[in-house]
Amino acid sequence: MSRISIDQANTIIAAAFAKGGELKLAPLSVAVLDAGGHLIAFQRQDGSSNMRAQIAIGKASGALSLGVSSRKIGEMALERPTFFGALGSLAPLGLLPAAGGVIVVGEDGFAIGAVGVTGDTSDNDEACGLAGIEAAGLKAKG
């Protein structure tokens, strides 16, 4: 089974920040988790508001917990709001139903971790996370 190394995590973060700069986005915060939901690396850009670490980790952790991107979690939450409302108390690292949390898979297609990005619109957050994953030579689920 493969894993995300600290060097790959740092590459993901740097490339996500670079993509945010290219798109002239608000300050971003990026978290990279391993397959067990443990934090590998986190950084926030100057000017990021507070709680960004919790939001980024929550996006990534929620994706890992349910096996789908946080974008998909948002879609599912609209269909089953009571279920997702109850899940919040069960998710120790959070569960955010908004794009920006992406699962990273190994060559076998199984999750090796996840990336959570927050700071701009959810669509832009997700685009930066995907750019970071690609720059690290890894693959996003889906």
Please write the string of helix (H) and strand (E) elements: HEEHHHEEHE
Structural class: alpha+beta
Rg, alpha carbons: 14 Å
Low-confidence stretches: none
Proportion of residues in helical segments: 40-55%
Q: Helix segment count? A: 5
Order of neighbouring strands in the sheet with most strands: 2-1-4-3-5
| Gross geometry | globular
- Determine the strand fraction and express it as a percent band: 15-25%
What is the arithmetic mean of pLDDT? Answer: 95
**Biggest beta-sheet profile:** 5 strands, antiparallel
Overall number of strands: 5
Distance between the termini: 19 Å
Short description:
This protein is of the alpha+beta class. Helix content is 44%, strand content 19%.
How would you sum up this structure, described in words?
- The chain is α+β, with helices and mostly antiparallel strands.
- 44% of the residues lie in helices and 19% in strands.
- It has 5 helices and 5 strands; from the N terminus they run H-E-E-H-H-H-E-E-H-E.
- The protein has helices at 6-22, 52-66, 70-79, 81-87, 122-135, and strands at 29-34, 39-44, 101-105, 111-118, 139-140.
- The protein has a 5-stranded antiparallel β-sheet with strand order 2-1-4-3-5.
- A hairpin with a 5-residue loop joins strand 3 (101-105) and strand 4 (111-118).
- Helix 1 (6-22) crosses helix 5 (122-135) and helix 3 (70-79) crosses helix 4 (81-87).
- The radius of gyration is 14 Å and the shape is globular.
- The two termini are 19 Å apart.
